[in-house]
Write a structure and sequence with these properties.
- The chain is built from 14 helices and 14 strands.
- The strands form four sheets. It has an eight-stranded parallel β-barrel with strand order 1-2-3-4-5-7-11-12, surrounded by five helices. It has a two-stranded parallel sheet with strand order 6-8.
- Helix 2 runs parallel beside helix 4 and helix 12 runs parallel beside helix 13.
- It is globular, with a radius of gyration of 21 Å.
Length: 467
């Protein structure tokens, strides 16, 4: 296909500190909420005791091996790498007055290594983790004081890296707090809706404060939000299904509405009223929320359907959402439905709604890879998945949607978020480690490594449009 991607399109990949770094107690790092979820975000919350271990404690040892990994990303031609800063490397308990210098120094080294190859960092401030000290001592995001601690952290890293990092994100998949409250806002899973939405409100205020801080501190800095793009279709054209689909899509679009439009939408007032949800929102909060993001970023793995027919309402568990399966789509090994056209649809929905630049910061296929006798890994299924999605991104650009970049999820194998598995592989680069933590951690290029290198080098010209 002839390229529809702009000349300065940010091609790359995305990882998260808690899924790749390891070194979970190295150089003064404190315990994070992720460290208490050794089986992933759907697993039990497990207190740490001396001598115990979890797969994320080492992960893929990116903390020590990042120069090798950055070199591999550069070999593919990455223009951009999305990762996160582990908040507990900077403020181990979350409430310290003075940051941890060793943690700050690590990210200096990481960003310098990326700069050697001309790879721009896209940095998430909080990606599925926060200091456990803030949960234990303050009640997590349920406590308004956490806004102050987060703003201190954000301003600290903005000041430190203002000449090295120009693209920032606030909270990863911020809408996931509705489905996994401990991971998102540090609350127990059985918390009331009022408690969860109050914590979410505090997080939205903190996000707006981070946006203002970025604009104040980082010369030429741009900062976005990050949504889990769980777009839903009506299962039928029955008006009740269409209306219910709109309502359920608003459950997650609400987060984008606040962060991109600067206030609570009217439909949420009705939702709060009808569900007896009490949220304290001060006049100062409303003023703070008017500081809006520069761009919208989101993850996209799959779409789903909605029906009001109870007999058809059998759901497929996928990522952190329950979705009714679409009878017209195939599924991955993990039951995630594959819908490339849904990505074009979602891009158009978001651009129509917000009229802000969009950044696809997660998209990929988790699958079991096999090493052949000659050492090769022929992951054509991954190539096909990514090719078909990127073709639809090109179509959206042709529709007039402003797309800044595309960072595939997991350009190197990592520990999956949902169940902390290594066997659910996303990468262009294979890492020799299994679900029990055994393996040499050796890196190996897959077939998709060379495919993605060609896509980037050709600015999308090498993609195959099957239409």
């Amino acid at each position: 296909m002839s390229s529809k991607f702009p000349d300065h399109f940010l091609w790359g990949g995305a990882v998260a500190a808690n899924q790749v770094e390891g070194a979970y107690q190295t150089d003064g790092k404190g315990l994070s909420t992720s460290d208490l979820q050794p089986q992933g975000i759907f697993g039990a919350i497990t207190p740490r005791v001396d001598g115990d271990s979890g797969i994320k404690d080492v992960a893929i040892d990116f903390y020590h091996r990042y120069p090798q990994d950055i070199a591999l990303f550069a070999e593919m031609g990455f223009k951009c790498l999305r990762t996160s800063i582990a908040w507990t490397r900077i403020f181990p308990q979350g409430d310290e007055d003075v940051p941890n210098e060793a943690g700050l120094a690590f990210y200096d080294q990481l960003f310098d290594e990326m700069a050697k190859y001309g790879i721009q960092p896209l940095i998430t401030l909080s990606h599925y983790e926060m200091p456990y000290g803030l949960v234990k001592n303050y009640g997590g995001w349920g406590n308004r004081k956490t806004i102050e601690f987060f703003e201190r952290y954000a301003r600290t890293v903005f000041e430190r890296y203002k000449h090295k990092v120009k693209h920032w994100l606030t909270f990863n998949e911020i809408n996931m707090s509705l489905h996994a409250p401990f991971t998102g806002v540090g609350l127990k899973d059985d918390s009331s809706k009022s408690e969860i939405y109050q914590a979410i409100h505090h997080q939205l205020v903190a996000s707006a404060k981070a946006v203002k801080a970025c604009h104040d501190i980082v010369p030429g800095g741009k900062i976005g939000n990050m949504l889990l793009g769980g777009i839903l279709y009506p299962l039928s054209c029955k008006p009740e299904d269409v209306l219910e689909t709109q309502r359920q899509n608003r459950d997650w679009l609400f987060f984008g509405d606040v962060q991109a439009r600067g206030g609570y939408p009217a439909y949420m007032q009705r939702f709060f009223r009808e569900n007896n949800i009490q949220v304290e929102i001060t006049a100062e909060d409303r003023q703070t929320l008017r500081e809006t993001v520069d761009f919208i970023s989101f993850s996209y793995y799959m779409s789903g359907c909605v029906t009001t027919d109870e007999q058809q309402n059998n759901t497929a568990r996928a990522n952190i959402l329950n979705m009714v399966p679409n009878p017209h789509l195939a599924s991955s090994e993990w039951g995630w439905q594959i819908d490339p056209v849904g990505l074009r649809y979602l891009l158009n929905v978001l651009y129509d709604r917000y009229q802000k630049p969009l950044f696809i910061v997660e998209n990929g296929l988790g699958a079991k890879d096999r090493i052949e006798a000659d050492g090769s890994i022929n992951d054509d299924y991954r190539i096909n998945y990514l090719n078909d999605h990127l073709v639809q991104v090109a179509e959206a650009i042709d529709d007039g949607v402003e797309v800044m970049g595309y960072t595939s999820w997991g350009p190197i194998d990592l520990v999956s978020a949902s169940k902390a598995e290594m066997s659910k592989r996303y990468g262009f680069i294979y890492v020799d480690r299994d679900d029990t933590g055994k393996g040499s951690l050796e890196r190996r290029r897959k077939k998709s490594f060379y495919w993605y290198r060609d896509v980037i080098q050709s600015n999308g010209n090498s993609l195959k449009d099957k239409a």
